[in-house]
């Protein structure tokens, strides 16, 4: 029996990312950052939402990173279309704007994260990894805008979902942009316990994702 050559060992899985950005310098910079970082691969860099809708399926990514203010079909209009075509691929919105309406639409359309373009490269890569692993990510500025926006909206009469104190605390942390790991640290519980509470939250709120849970929590003033 031949010894296995170390070079024959399977490569470490990479997080595949598709980029949708209409500014060439930004688009090429993002592609270079992703391809130049170990553990990441850019499967496509598209200059428009229309181009992405035609071609992103040629090499399916693990995460789609999309600008909001695109020429032609905007990112906020394209997100629900992409979610309809690829419901299991998380979308991460990237924008120079913290406009209330755009953020609200992206949130309700199912984006898994909302980042400003001034996000440092290392943090951007960390956020891509977070959403690829089922988490959510927000720039602090975007999180504050989202919370302020929903608090200003007159919601329907507060619904009662019989959330436990721990479930309510976890939901509040998710609204603030925490991921599983940081929420577990804040609550001094294990990540497995966070997952357990999150499943109960999904069942009680009748939602299927973290972004839907956050949207429902804010809309109904559950936190």
- Unreliable spans: none
Strand residues, percent: 5-15%
Report the principal-axis shape: globular
Please count the helical segments: 10
| Overall pLDDT confidence | 83
Q: Span between N and C termini? A: 62 Å
Rg, rounded, reads 19 Å
Largest sheet: 6 strands, parallel
Helix/strand structural class:
alpha/beta
Number of strands: 6
N to C succession of SSEs:
EHEHEHEHEHEHHHHH
Q: What strand line-up does the widest sheet have?
A: 2-1-3-4-5-6
Give helix % range: 40-55%
Descriptive report:
The chain is α/β, with parallel strands linked by helices and 223 residues long. The chain is built from 10 helices and 6 strands; from the N terminus they run E-H-E-H-E-H-E-H-E-H-E-H-H-H-H-H. It has helices spanning 24-35, 49-55, 75-85, 100-109, 121-132, 140-152, 165-175, 180-187, 191-205, 210-219, and strands at residues 15-20, 40-46, 63-67, 91-95, 113-116, 137-138. A 6-stranded parallel sheet has the order 2-1-3-4-5-6, with helices on both faces. The mean pLDDT is 83.
């Amino acid at each position: 029996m031949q010894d296995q050559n170390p070079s024959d060992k399977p490569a470490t899985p990479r997080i595949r990312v598709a980029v949708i950005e209409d500014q060439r310098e930004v688009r090429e910079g993002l592609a270079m950052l992703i391809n130049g970082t170990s553990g990441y691969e850019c499967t496509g860099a598209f200059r428009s939402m229309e181009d992405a809708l035609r071609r992103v399926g040629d090499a399916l990514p693990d995460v789609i990173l999309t600008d909001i203010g695109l020429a032609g079909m905007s990112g906020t209009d394209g997100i629900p279309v992409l979610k309809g075509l690829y419901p299991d691929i998380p979308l991460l919105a990237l924008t120079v704007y913290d406009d209330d309406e755009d953020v609200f639409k992206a949130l309700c359309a199912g984006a898994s994260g909302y980042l400003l373009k001034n996000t440092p490269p290392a943090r951007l890569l960390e956020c891509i990894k977070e959403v690829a692993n089922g988490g959510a990510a927000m720039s602090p500025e975007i999180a504050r805008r989202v919370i302020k926006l929903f608090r200003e909206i007159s919601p329907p009469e507060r619904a009662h979902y019989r959330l436990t104190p721990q479930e309510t605390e976890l939901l509040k942390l998710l609204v603030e942009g925490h991921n599983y790991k940081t929420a577990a640290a804040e609550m001094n519980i294990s990540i497995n316990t966070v997952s357990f509470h999150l499943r109960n939250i999904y069942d009680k709120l009748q939602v299927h994702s973290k972004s839907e849970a956050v949207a429902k929590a804010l809309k109904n003033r559950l936190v």
